[in-house]
Amino acid sequence: MFxxxxxxxxxxxxxxxxxxxxxxxxxxxxxxxxxxxGIETVREFIPNQIKAxxxxxxxxxxxxxxxxxxxxxxxxxxxxxxxxxxxxxxPDKIRITSILINSSNGKRMRILQDEEKRxxxxxxxxxxxxxxxxxxxxxxEASAEGPFYKNNKINWENNVSRMAVGTIRVSGDMExxxxxxxxxxxx
Length: 187
Prior knowledge:
Blueprint: H1 5-17, E1 21-25, E2 29-33, E3 37-42, H2 48-58, E4 67-71, E5 74-77, E6 92-102, E7 108-114, E8 119-123, H3 124-129, E9 145-150, E10 153-157, E11 161-166, H4 172-179
Antiparallel strand pairs: 1-2, 1-4, 2-3, 3-11, 4-5, 6-7, 6-9, 7-8, 9-10, 10-11
């Protein structure tokens, strides 16, 4: 899995404490996600730390075909939940810039920009979470590719995992500032 387990565990706990952490066993893959993000990974490539975090938060690991949303009030079985990270066809390559924006609620947003100078913002935690040193190359896992942009989502993927993150909408003064940017130095 091309993500830092400590950062993923933090995001899982945040999601668990708010609207619920969605966990699904799709057979060969396990989906872990929240309101605007999701990671789907081949079961054998999920680090034991993440499996333990799922069990710690939810009390169980879903059986094949099961989907549930876990909160502090318990697990709610789901019937019709889109629990797959969609692989977009023909996405645009987007680059991570060096610019961070601090929001009024303390969140840090990273600006990403494509070749046509279009800008997208995502939570900095997702940028810092991607780490190719975490892959299991000995078992055949490839380095993650991305980020890619399509349909207001930023995606990273390799041969065993996919991650999708919704972009952040901006408004007011921040929208004016972001829309006036035409060139940003890339990281």
